[in-house]
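Deviation from plan, reported transparently: phosphoenolpyruvate complex.
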Amino acid sequence: MSEYSGKRVVGGFDASKQVVVFAGPCAIESEEQFEQVCACVASLGLHWVRGGAFKPRTNPHSFQGLGLRGLQIMNRVANKHRLLTLSEVIDAEHIDVVDEYSDGLQIGARNMTNYSLLKTIGEKTAQTKKLVFFKRGMAATVSEWLSAAEYITSSGNDNVVLCERGLRTFETATRYTLDISAVPVVQKQSVLPICVDVSHPAGQADLVPALACAALASGADAIMIEVHPHPQTALSDGPQQLNLEQFASLIGRLRTLAAAMGKEIV
Ligand code: PEP
Ligand code: MN
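Because the crystal trials were delayed, the predicted structure below was used instead.
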C-alpha cells in the first residue's frame, strides 16, 4: 500500500482541502513564452505548470511541439520559479525523457486505450511514484476509463490523477461536451482523484471561466486551464487559451468560490 491509497492526493496536495490548478500553455513554444507563463502562475501562488513538448496533433502538418528542447525549457524556467511541471507522453520511446525532465507525466485522451503505453509508464514510475495524469478518451465510458487506469496502478504506481476533458457528441457549439457528472461518478466509484480540464471542452476562451467555476463547484479535486501570453499567436489551441490577465482574474474568482467551500486554490 502506498501513501496514495485511500485518500485523494493531487501532486502532493490534500484534495480534501486544496484544489490544484494545472495551468500553462498548450505547447511550450519558446523560453520567453514559458517564462511569462511561469512568472504569472508563480505570482498567483500556484504550484504546478503544464506544457506540451510532444503534441498529439490531429493534423500531421500542425506544430508538433519542441520535443526535448521544449522539456529543457520547461525544466529550466519552472525550476527558476519553483514550480512543478506536467508534460505529455505520446509515445513509449519518450517516457524516459519526459520522466527525466518533468514532475508529472500526462497521458492524453488519444492514448487512453494504449494499454501497453499505460503499463510501461506504470512500471517505469513504480519506484518513484511520480504523478501520472490520465485523461479520459473522448468516446470512453467512465467504466472503460477506470479499467484503463488500472493498467497504470496495477503496474506499480497508484499516484494517478484522472482527468475529464470532454466527450465527442452531436453538439458543435463547444469543442467537446464536458461531462461534469463524471466528477461525482468517479468520486463514488474510485479512490483516485479527479481533475477537470476546462479548456479543451470549451474550445473558446470566453467559455472557460464558467466551466472552471462549474468544475470547482462540482467538487473536482483539481482543474486544468490552458494559458498563454498571446493566445492569438499560439502555435496550438489558440482560441481556447486564456491570456495572463484573464487567467489571473479567473483565479481570483475561483479563490472566492473555493473559500465558500472551505477549500484553497493551490
Ligand atoms: C492537452 O492537454 O494539451 C491535450 C492534447 O489534451 P487531450 O489529450 O485532452 O486532447
Ligand atoms: Mn491543448
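The first strand starts at residue 9 and ends at 10. We consider this an acceptable substitute for the interim report.
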